[in-house]
Specification:
By secondary structure, the chain is of the alpha/beta class. Helices cover 40% and strands 15% of the residues. The chain is built from 31 helices and 31 strands. The strands form 5 sheets. The protein has a 16-stranded parallel beta sheet. It has a 6-stranded parallel beta sheet with strand order 2-3-4-1-6-5, with helices on both faces. A hairpin with a 5-residue loop joins strand 8 and strand 9. Helix 3 runs parallel beside helix 5, helix 10 runs parallel beside helix 12 and helix 16 packs parallel to helix 18.
């Protein structure tokens, strides 16, 4: 609740500074409102933790929330009226029919209305604050100042958890058992099930087995799909197809447009000749296997389907469909005894006392150890805390995350124990009570950030970039001096991870979190707490017959809400509308215009149809986040230039046309429009007679856009905060001195992707010059290097992707000093690139793709590539030989050699790579194993 007030206080403060002219004589009332809210915020930091214990405080907090929301509505509606008024005045001025005095007189009614409503709100706030003394709340709030929620250790350093999840859940005994279940050579497809209650670690065990090197090499292809309660067969089949099939952009679109039955046949046809592993995580219904089993063929020996479920009846149902007997196995001896069984069940048990205590210590102390810290008194209390978790790994790791933020004293741990006992007394489910304690212990600034995870569909993988952009748009990130907001948001996420409230799904090559997820029990808690706090609603929880005044609405299933969407859009208080399903139908846009005028976040979901965003989008002047995904085309209206608060524009793979007036939007931080182009070549606004240029967008953090005339000049080089730049298209006309100097000026870059491809220009040139003229190569393709200047000052640049003709400089000083990942494509390099690249001291990932090298031999020399962990060679059609000298690539884990048709024999020197875990294609791996066995045989 305190963060809700904090968000609005900061918003008011910014408005007073930047838009004081709007308020006129009412500015005093606005400042009074802000000052009163600042006082409220201080008390609310203590009140939040006491709501559970006293109904009076709960009511007081609820009243503050309501009046804060009311005040925000009043201010935002006033700004909306002022925007419309200004638009009307600009039109009249343009038509030269506006008397001089009209502007001021036209504003008076809005000022008067705002004055009356603010005075009423300020009176209400005085009464609410007075109730603290009247009803004895001050004493209660004072006593809460020593509660456990104040004992917060701030984690501002950027780091992940000290111990990885898969290493601490106490499931080592199950890993080998389930692995053997999957790798036994049955003649037909077999179903393996991991069964256990929520919080036992089914998904973690399945992941550990799924990612095991032996398992990955045993199967031709593997797929992991999350099922959850919102089961849709087509989405699961689509997930399998994306995982096991290598799809071009065109084929991916074709597959995505298939119906369920057609898609099932496509998947079945591909898997028919494969030994495959498909993991279906979090299965809630027996219908899942009934609907999908026919699309998972039995043709190839040894294929497996792994199911995780809370309900053993679902596992037994899968067995009955296989028409074989059920066998429950819990040891390797039993597996050997029942080797011919086609369906195997592994019951995941709770932890014993020793395992639970070891896990709690690892989560609490991490890799720092307990020496000199864990006293006998502290151990006694700690074991009592562990016992309350009843052997559930999820409960133990979450409590460990909580304890890791506390001082290691007996008194504080006893307070945690008392809090656990109180939470457990409120309901029968021990795990839920402990999770609720961990939520209530969060500092106020993290609570909304955690609850926001509940808007995402169950079991979804959440991209960090999108999450942070949403947090920023919602106003959840509080400023810390001059520190970038994105860095603060990343700190928030790491603190939630450190507390084990959020799990890491994937990491970037530099160790930062690429994506994350939330356990379904914690998600249930987030949705419940968010509803109580009035933060958001999820469509699955909304009773469409009795729509309430919703602040934020997340729509997961279009069919559940589409018929009644007007009821939900008919609330002016709605601030965020997020579709995780098909996009909003065009007929419902009028409801946005008429009722939902104050939106801050609008995620339109995904559609592969052509989509024209209506002109009314310009009415949403408070909009900060606009997203539309899918294939097909999209057109943005010229009214987009009214979205002066827009921070994020995400059109993904849509081939979109964006008006050049987007350069007016100086609050933009993210332009994620890979296939979009600025539709007009004119940069001169005829009405305003001002020069529009990208150089005004100095807040930009990420820019993904097709090249265009906007690249001319030095505008790009002015974006000194830019961390990610992707230019994917026909760069040829703009690869001049000014362009290369601009790249050199972008020293804050972390990732750089430049693709110079004539494919993007070919169609228009053919229309103009005819095919026979094109064949004469009228347009000469320029080279990225030489051209690009030294990256020696780009100390943050860790990932570079270059596509197009270039020559690699031999001077190591040319390259970014902290380069971790390099990908080259279509470069047509003549000389062996390894001679240069192997000297890069920090390089961990190298990709040489699609004619990046046109020679016939590459050599990795002794002591070369000291840090390289992954090497991929793909589409090097002339390559005949890869030589790895002794001492080269000592840390290499993954080697992929694909599409190199001229290479007929195994790369020389593979046997000396001691850390090699994965080799593709599988035939190369099998050949390597044969060589190892032959070598061992000769030694014996």
């Amino acid at each position: 609740m305190a963060d809700t007030v904090s968000i609005f206080v900061e918003k008011l403060s910014n408005l007073i500074l930047q838009e004081a002219h709007l308020f006129g004589e009412v500015e005093g009332e606005v400042q009074l409102l802000r000052d009163e809210l600042k006082w409220m915020r201080l008390f609310l930091k203590d009140a939040d933790s006491q709501c559970l214990h006293d109904e009076r405080i709960k009511l007081w907090v609820e009243q503050i929330r309501n009046v804060t929301h009311n005040a925000e509505d009043v201010i935002d509606e006033f700004i909306l009226h002022m925007d419309r008024r200004q638009l009307r005045l600009n039109t009249l001025k343009f038509l030269k029919c506006l008397p001089t005095c009209v502007g001021f007189i036209d504003k008076l009614p809005f000022i008067h209305d705002l004055d009356c409503r603010l005075k009423e709100i300020n009176v209400r706030m005085e009464r609410i604050m007075a109730n603290r003394s009247k009803y004895g709340l001050e004493a209660l709030l004072a006593s809460s100042s020593s509660s456990t929620t104040d004992q917060v250790v701030e984690h501002k350093e950027k780091r992940g958890p000290d111990v990885e999840e898969s290493d601490v859940v106490g499931i080592e005994d199950g890993t080998e058992v389930v692995k053997q279940m999957l790798m036994k050579g049955e003649r037909r497809r077999a179903v393996v099930s991991i069964v256990g209650m929520g919080g036992l670690g089914k998904t973690t065990l399945a992941k550990k087995v799924y990612n095991h090197d032996d398992v990955r090499q045993h199967f031709d292809c593997c797929a992991w799909v999350y099922v959850s309660q919102e089961f849709r067969a087509r989405e699961i089949l689509l997930g399998i197809a994306y995982s096991v099939m290598t799809l071009s952009v065109e084929k991916k679109k074709e597959v995505k447009e298939m119906g369920g039955a057609e898609l099932g046949r496509e998947v079945c046809g591909y898997l028919k000749e494969k030994k495959y592993l498909v993991v279906m995580d979090d299965v809630w219904s027996s219908e899942v296997w009934s609907n999908l089993r026919s699309y998972l063929p039995e043709a190839k020996e040894g294929s497996k389907v792994l199911i995780t479920t809370r309900n053993e009846e679902i596992a037994l149902h899968a067995i009955s469909h296989e028409n074989i007997a059920s066998t429950v196995l819990n040891s390797e001896d039993e597996i050997a005894e029942h080797a011919n069984s086609q369906a195997l069940i592994y019951r995941l048990r709770t932890m014993n006392e020793d395992e639970g205590w070891e896990l709690l210590l690892k989560r609490t102390f991490g890799n720092r150890g307990t020496s000199g810290v864990l006293t006998s008194e502290l151990e006694i209390v700690g074991k009592k805390i562990m016992a309350k978790c009843q052997g559930l790994p999820l409960a133990i790791v979450v409590v460990g995350g909580l304890l890791s933020t506390k001082e290691k004293t007996k008194s504080l741990w006893e307070k945690v124990l008392a809090s656990i006992e109180w939470h457990l007394s409120q309901g029968p489910e021990s795990c839920i009570g402990i999770l609720a304690l961990s939520y209530n212990d969060l500092p106020y600034y993290l609570k909304s950030c955690f609850l926001y995870f509940g808007i995402f569909p169950e079991d979804s993988e959440i991209k960090t970039n999108k999450l942070i952009q949403l947090w920023l748009a919602e106003g959840f990130i509080q400023r810390r001096g001059k520190e970038p907001l994105e860095d603060i948001a990343e700190d928030y996420l790491y603190e939630l991870i450190h507390r084990s409230m959020i799990q890491v799904a994937k990491r970037k090559v530099d160790g930062r979190v690429k994506s994350c997820r939330i356990h379904d029990l914690l998600r249930d808690l987030a949705i419940s707490e968010a509803r109580d706090a009035g933060l958001f609603e999820v469509d699955e929880m909304v009773d469409v017959r009795f729509p309430t005044s919703i602040r934020r609405l997340s729509i997961h299933r279009h069919d559940l809400i589409q018929g009644n969407i007007s009821q939900h859009l008919g609330h002016s208080r709605l601030r965020s509308l997020i579709f995780f399903s098909e996009t909003l139908e065009r007929k419902n846009w009028r409801f946005l215009q008429e009722h939902v005028k104050l939106l801050t976040v609008l995620d339109l979901g995904s559609t592969d149809e052509d989509f024209i965003i209506p002109e009314v989008i310009g009415e949403l002047v408070h909009l900060k986040f606009l997203r539309l995904r899918g294939f097909g085309r999209a057109i943005l209206p010229f009214s987009i230039d009214r979205l002066v608060n827009l921070q994020s524009l995400d059109l993904g793979e849509k081939k979109a046309y964006i008006p050049h007036t987007i350069w007016k939007l100086q609050e933009l931080r993210y332009v994620n429009c890979w296939w979009s182009e600025i539709s007009s070549e004119f940069t001169l606004s005829k009405c305003a007679n001002v020069y529009l240029s990208i150089k005004k967008l100095t807040n930009l953090q990420a820019l993904d856009l097709l090249p265009g005339s906007w690249l001319e000049g030095d505008g790009l080089g002015k974006l000194t905060q830019l961390k990610k730049l992707t230019l994917y298209g026909w760069l040829n006309p703009y690869m001049k001195k000014g362009f290369f100097e601009s790249i050199a000026n972008l020293t804050a870059l972390r990732t750089l992707h430049l693709k110079n491809s004539w494919v993007f220009e070919r169609k228009t040139l053919l229309n103009r010059l005819r095919s026979e003229v094109w064949k004469e190569k009228v347009v000469e393709e320029r080279r990225l290097i030489p051209g690009l200047m030294s990256f020696s000052h780009h100390t943050n640049l860790y990932k570079v992707i270059l596509s197009g003709k270039l020559e690699l400089p031999e001077e190591i000083e040319f390259y970014p000093p902290n380069l971790l990942k390099l990908s080259l494509e279509d470069c047509e390099i003549q000389k062996d690139p390894m001679f240069i690249l192997e000297k890069l001291p920090n390089l961990r990932v190298l990709r040489l793709l699609g004619s990046s090298y046109v020679g016939d031999k590459v050599t990795c020399s002794s002591s070369g590539f000291p840090q390289l962990q992954s090497l991929k060679l793909n589409g090097l059609f002339s390559l005949k030989e890869l030589i790895i000298e002794e001492g080269a690539m000592p840390r290499l884990r993954t080697l992929e050699v694909l599409g190199c048709s001229a290479m007929e024999k195994l790369p020389r020197g593979l046997l000396q790579l001691k850390h090699l875990e994965k080799v593709e294609p599988k035939s190369m791996f099998d050949e390597l194993i044969e060589q190892v066995e032959e070598t061992v045989g000769e030694e014996e």
